[in-house]
């Protein structure tokens, strides 16, 4: 029993080593951070996608689409210079829309949306709305309408007993081709680099364990996640 417990402890330690990668250097090469922006929110949220065919006619996709939703700030919370919202998709790597706000155009946003907040509060309001959509999809939904000429509109809608209420809306612009090329290149190189690091670490650990304790390596392989499933499929 003691030997079994020791093997399991060693296995857990190695699993922790495999999960302890620091990809900060790779992530810092993200083109979205090029101008000094800082990420304050990064989640995947289910969206209703709608296409505007004519002025009033729209067509909805039948299923919810998970979109990576990121909130960036330039400056800090007390001295906010710019807010950037970014929507992207793993299912369509060319899908990339951005909403930008600064002290000047926020005056128009505030008046149009009838917001009772200051500009430095804008990021926290955005995050609160996204959190509501993520955590309470029965009451809150995110509807993104793709319009003509590369424009997009995001509406956060609250469902009540009698009607749907628009909580807040954001105007988006499709990113230009040059930025999209940069982002696709970064995503490809980032995944490739992270995979290479993980494969290299795994090979190093396998070699050390194989030399020092071959039976432990066998035990680790038996307890790896998904190992039992693969065995069942083979049978």
Question: Topology, pairings included?
Answer:
Layout: H1 2-18, H2 24-27, E1 38-52, E2 58-60, E3 65-75, E4 80-88, E5 96-102, H3 105-113, H4 122-135, E6 140-146, E7 151-159, E8 164-174, H5 177-212, H6 214-223, H7 227-234
Parallel strand pairs: 1-6
Antiparallel strand pairs: 1-2, 1-3, 3-4, 4-5, 5-8, 6-7, 7-8
Helix pairs in contact: 1-6, 5-6
InterPro entries: SAS-6_N, SAS-6_N_sf
Domain Spindle assembly abnormal protein 6 N-terminal: 39-172
Protein name: Spindle assembly abnormal protein 6 N-terminal domain-containing protein
Task: Give me the side-by-side strand order of the main sheet.
Answer: 1-3-4-5-8-7-6
**What order do the SSEs take from the amino end to the carboxyl end, as H and E?**
HHEEEEEHHEEEHHH
**Total number of helical segments?**
7
Q: What kind of oligomer do you see? A: single chain
Poorly predicted ranges (pLDDT <50, ≥5 residues)? 227-235
Percent range for helical residues?
A: 40-55%
**Can you tell me the overall shape?**
elongated
Domain Spindle assembly abnormal protein 6 N-terminal: 39-172
Organism: Ichthyophthirius multifiliis (White spot disease agent)
Pfam families: SAS-6_N
Protein name: Spindle assembly abnormal protein 6 N-terminal domain-containing protein
């Amino acid at each position: 029993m003691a030997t079994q417990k020791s093997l399991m402890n060693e296995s857990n330690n190695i699993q922790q080593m495999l999960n302890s990668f620091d990809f900060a250097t790779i992530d810092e090469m993200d083109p979205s951070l090029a101008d000094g922006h800082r990420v304050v929110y990064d989640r995947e949220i289910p969206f209703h996608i709608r296409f505007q065919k004519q002025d009033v006619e729209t067509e909805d996709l039948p299923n919810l689409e998970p979109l990576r939703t990121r909130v960036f700030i330039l400056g800090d919370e007390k001295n906010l210079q710019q807010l950037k919202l970014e929507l992207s998709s793993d299912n369509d790597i060319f899908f990339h829309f951005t909403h930008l706000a600064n002290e000047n155009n926020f005056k128009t946003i505030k008046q149009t949306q009838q917001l009772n907040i200051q500009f430095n509060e804008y990021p926290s309001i955005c995050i609160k709305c996204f959190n509501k959509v993520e955590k309470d999809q029965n009451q809150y939904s995110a509807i993104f309408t793709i319009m003509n000429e590369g424009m997009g509109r995001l509406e956060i809608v609250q469902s009540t007993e009698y009607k749907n209420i628009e909580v807040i809306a954001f105007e988006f612009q499709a990113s230009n081709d040059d930025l999209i090329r940069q982002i696709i290149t970064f995503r490809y190189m980032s995944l490739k680099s992270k995979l290479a690091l993980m494969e290299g670490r795994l090979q190093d650990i396998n070699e050390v364990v194989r030399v020092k304790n071959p039976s432990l390596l066998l035990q680790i392989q038996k307890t790896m996640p998904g190992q039992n499933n693969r065995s069942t499929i083979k049978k």
